[in-house]
Amino acid sequence: MSNPFLKKIEQLNKIGIALSAQSDTTALLGQILESAQELTAADGGTLYRVINGKLHFDVILNRTLNIKMGGNYTKGVPFGAIPLTNNDGSANCSAVAAYVGNRGETVNIEDVYCDDRFDFSGALKFDQNAHYRTQSMLAIPLKDFEDEVIGVLQLINAQDETGQVVPFSVESESLARSLASQASVALTNRRLIDEHKKLFESFSKMVADAIDKKSPYTGKHCERVPVLTMMLAEAAINAQDPIFKDFTMNEAERYELQTAAWLHDCGKLTTPEYIMDKSTKLETVFDRIELVKTRLNLKAFQEIVRKHGISETEIAQTQANYLSAYERLKQINTGGEFLNDEGIDFLKFIAGKNYTNLMGEKESLLTDDELTNLMIQRGTLNDEERDIMQDHAAMSIHMLNMLPFPKDLKRVAEFAGGHHERMDGKGYPNHLKREELSIPARMMGIADIFEALSAGDRPYKEAKKLSESLKILGFMKKDGHVDPDLFNLFVREKVYLRYAESYLKPEQIDEVDPAKIPGYEPLPEA
């Protein structure tokens, strides 16, 4: 291909392909201006973008002066933006770039020192300070698919084969306009991608915030789990541990994991509030322990009446006995401690006691449903309620699988849906074992548990000390609940401490001795 112009067309096509493949906006900006210089043999140039009614200097290049500013170059642009409107609201058309930005027209000037249409005071001042001579200038608008100007490409001092400054030719102008069109498409696509990404990120955070606000018993769980997950991920990436030597994550993979962390509990949107907020064993719409209290009062009164003529001391003793029974029932109702055999026998004894209702019928002091709930050995949820609560993990997977995720986010459902699985396969919803779970999914499992253990903003429990939370997590590691290697990394790299310093109350942060953490295994000495 001997024709120079055809060579330029081929070069333009290659540039267009390269621009469309560029995913980094700052790198794209520099690439656009460099390509324009190369096509038109321009000594320098500036790329502006329209942001909030002003032309912002994005990239400035000059070969003679060895200037490289903005874009992804190390030196930033020190100049302020050029307003596209004057103080009176009229269009600012005094500077060439502003004129092109407002009118959307190309301007080609042979010599700026001989042109009286525009204000070149800025260029003249630059020339004086830099001992340079700005001569030919070509300014071209960048327009989006709606024909709106999104930027301006301004080139200066076209050079011939000998290096002499010449006007920009019709051929150069045509090539530059074609490049500007391709650049506009690339920038618009990049902007749309970034906007959609930002929109989805905001949507993910909105869902997490809605879940956190749905119940006071979750605190800021959905907000903190992503933070802790990414802290653990960075620790694995930077670890000296041979186990993680091959573990890496690029920017897209980090975003995928963070998105999964934000959405890990989205299934809780379908969980009934009376289950999420069940703070006692007898709570439904209200805490039914008050009904039990009424029955005990009635029972005590009936016994006193039946024993007509008993002394004040015996009356007080009867009342004290039933008050004591109520206090113990109230304590069991909180679900704060494991219910042992003695507690179960006590509940059966109370359930065997009858009282007479207003219609003269004999009824148990505890209904069958109340007895079933009070006999929950750990926590406040019965088996049916626990199944409903645990179903949120399956619902998260179901809801996320309904979304048409792009390739870069295809594992969001897998990461998010695995945070309640256990390494021994006894977790839920799919009973997956360690080898069936990805490392990011296992990371989320630890982050989910530790946030819940260490949270200091839950109304149903006191804030645990850091050492206490790690002790419980250690026992869970020994019990096959969490990944052993990630647990060791979590402790060894003090991920827990970096998190605690930002998110725990000062009184929670106590001294931690790794040697006293159950299940912790330090790296063997080299």
From TrEMBL:
Write out the entry's keywords from A to Z.
Hydrolase
Question: Is Lipoprotein there in the keyword field?
Answer: no
- Hydrolase as UniProt keyword: yes
Q: What SUPFAM superfamilies is this protein classified in?
A: GAF domain-like, HD-domain/PDEase-like
- Transmembrane residue ranges: none
Q: Which domain of life is it from?
A: Bacteria
Q: What residues does the HD-GYP domain cover?
A: 296-506
Q: Which GO terms describe its molecular function?
A: phosphoric diester hydrolase activity
Q: By what name is this protein known?
A: HD family phosphohydrolase
Organism annotation:
Thiosulfativibrio zosterae
The lineage is:
Bacteria, Pseudomonadati, Pseudomonadota, Gammaproteobacteria, Thiotrichales
